[in-house]
């Protein structure tokens, strides 16, 4: 995904258009709703695995499905680029228990994460 990715429909078909963008210079994905930053999904790359570390959705966008749309779009982008992913973010880990379309690309936590060094 790039900054000129096509707009996609958000969780509400009658709502404003949304887009999920990869911002590698910030190590995060962003979701824009009607052109406004609504949330981020932060990640780090470890041993070739994209590890999702934290998600945040701004208060005014909470409870409307934007976090789920952002995580789905971010993981879909990782998979489309031939990558694998893992998560330490509680939201992403919970999301993965409900949605399984990307399970084939789910990787074990890299040793640096599993050993706790990422969190030190």
Would you kindly provide a brief summary of this structure?
By secondary structure, the chain is an alpha+beta fold. It has helices at 66-80, 90-98, 111-114, and strands at 8-9, 17-23, 28-33, 36-46, 49-57, 84-87.
Describe the model.
The protein is an alpha+beta fold and 120 residues long. It has a single domain (8-119), classed as Aminopeptidase. It is built from three helices and six strands. A six-stranded mixed beta sheet has the order 1-2-3-4-5-6. The longest helix is centred in the middle third of the chain and has 15 residues, at 66-80. The termini are far apart.
Task: Draw up the topology in text.
Elements: E1 8-9, E2 17-23, E3 28-33, E4 36-46, E5 49-57, H1 66-80, E6 84-87, H2 90-98, H3 111-114
Parallel strand pairs: 5-6
Antiparallel strand pairs: 1-2, 2-3, 3-4, 4-5
